[in-house]
Design a protein that fits this description.
450 residues, mainly alpha, Amino acid/polyamine transporter I, two-stranded antiparallel sheet, 2 strands
Length: 450
């Protein structure tokens, strides 16, 4: 199928290598390090969790290198669908790209809900004025309002242009990294190595291996985002060296792994990790108890707030560009193929994502948790499709592309094979089926070849 001619207007060209890094890293690191640290440590203990995140980054390096080669040769907002065109049937290309949209899109309503949860840690009044409950989880008016206002702000920022969105992403990313450096240094300097004992959540050599595996299976979800650079590849500034795409992707993956490993180590030094797990404490609570300082805890919450803003913005940008790329090929409504001539932004795709995010945010925590789990499968499908396409297209780097495809296949199998810890439950299968059904309707409603 030929690309749509509905949008001759190009996207704006303003992004530098540093900004590509902030989109890759910023789309990857969210607030899991604050709110889920007890889960990570319960799975692996300090040693198991740190090894798993480091090993996970190494296992994903073939995927990152393959994306770097693909985007250097084929800078296209459609990314996965562009890579698969001509080497896969059109239906397979659309299915993989549509599934990849989900991996970004579902993060946005999750962050819209998480902003209320985060603010409630500092302002308990956010829990007042309950509106309704879903699955036993109460949705309060202040939390819902915070999520919808944040969605409106991200939408307005992106409608105005990529320049402002990139500046915002850069400020939030480096603000997070500055605070991260301070509190991790504090944790290691003033903590006690004895707090990290035992290093693994399960005893013995077999227990150490199990500790690493139980954490490793969740690592791909928390390292998803380095490949988002490919979605913004049409927006590089004039004169940008295409090799910079690969550098930004590799740097984002490496920085993400270092970030997670350092946070786990610092928290485990600062506070006895078994007490943290039994008390279901977050990172900021562990530091508050360890040092008796509300100021340190508030600084960590503020860092998480910056992290939430950047991951929301990063995933929002990636989803809208991928929708634009799919729309150009005639698989979605023609409006989604349009770029605003004055702002050089895909305004219809941005508004589509705003409506999706706002509507899903109304569901609150209860229904978003199982839906978010689908993101691990979605990104595995997208990564695998891109790596297989690279192996079929290019002889250079074919072994790495095959290795990346194997890693992606393992991620998918961990989610779909019954009995594997963390595999899909009925709720996740329903969520994935609903998204797939929506894609099928788009496919059946696409215009004929021209």
């Amino acid at each position: 199928m030929k690309k749509s001619d509905a949008s001759p207007t190009p996207l704006g060209r303003s992004l530098s290598g540093i900004e590509y890094f902030t989109f890759g890293f910023g789309t990857m690191v969210g607030v899991g390090w604050l709110v889920l640290i007890d889960d990570w440590l319960s799975r692996g203990g300090p040693g198991g969790a740190m090894i798993a995140f480091g090993a996970g980054a190494l296992l994903l390096s073939p995927v990152a290198l393959t994306y770097g080669r693909l985007v250097r040769r084929m800078p296209d907002a459609g990314a996965e669908i562009a890579y698969m065109e001509g080497v896969f049937p059109r239906g397979a290309a659309f299915a993989a790209a549509w599934t990849m949209v989900l991996s970004y899109a579902i993060v946005c309503p999750w962050e819209a809900v998480a902003i209320g949860n985060l603010l409630a840690r500092v302002f308990p009044e956010m829990n007042r004025f309950p509106l309704y409950a879903i699955g036993g989880k109460v949705v309060s008016a202040p939390r819902l309002a915070a999520g919808l206002l944040l969605t409106a702000a991200i939408t307005a920022l992106n409608v105005r242009g990529m320049r402002g969105s990139a500046r915002f992403q850069k400020a939030a990313t480096f603000g997070l990294l500055a605070i991260f450096a301070l509190f991790t240094a504090l944790g290691f300097a003033r903590g006690n190595p004895a707090h990290a004992a035992p290093l693994f959540a399960h005893p013995g050599l077999a227990g150490a291996a199990l500790s690493i595996f139980l954490t490793l299976q969740i690592v791909p979800y928390f390292l998803t985002g380095f490949e988002s650079v490919s979605k913004e590849s049409e927006e590089s500034r004039v004169g940008f060296d295409p090799r910079g795409f690969g550098r930004a992707i590799g740097a984002a993956l490496a920085a993400g792994a270092v970030f997670y490993v350092a946070v786990i180590g610092a928290v485990s030094f600062a506070f006895p990790w078994q007490e943290l797990v039994s008390g279901h404490l977050g990172t900021e609570a562990a530091f508050r108890r360890a040092f008796g300082s509300d100021a340190v805890a508030r600084a960590i919450v503020f860092a998480a707030f910056l992290s939430l803003l950047k991951i929301f913005n990063g995933n929002f940008v990636a989803a809208t560009r991928l929708l634009l790329g799919i729309g150009r090929r005639g698989y979605l409504h023609p409006a989604l193929a349009r770029v605003d001539a004055r702002r050089n932004t895909p305004v219809p795709a941005i508004l589509f994502m705003a409506v999706f995010t706002g509507a899903a945010a109304l569901l609150g925590d209860a229904l978003l948790v199982p839906v978010t789990e689908v993101g691990s499968l979605a990104v595995g499908v997208g990564w695998g499709a891109a790596c297989i396409a690279a192996a079929k297209r290019f002889s250079e780097g074919r072994a790495l592309a095959v290795a990346g495809a194997v890693v992606a296949a393992a991620i998918v199998l961990m989610k779909i094979v019954p009995g594997v810890p963390g595999s899909f439950t009925r709720a996740e299968w329903i969520a994935f089926a609903v998204w797939s059904a929506a894609g099928l309707l788009f496919w059946l409603g696409k215009p004929g070849d021209t």
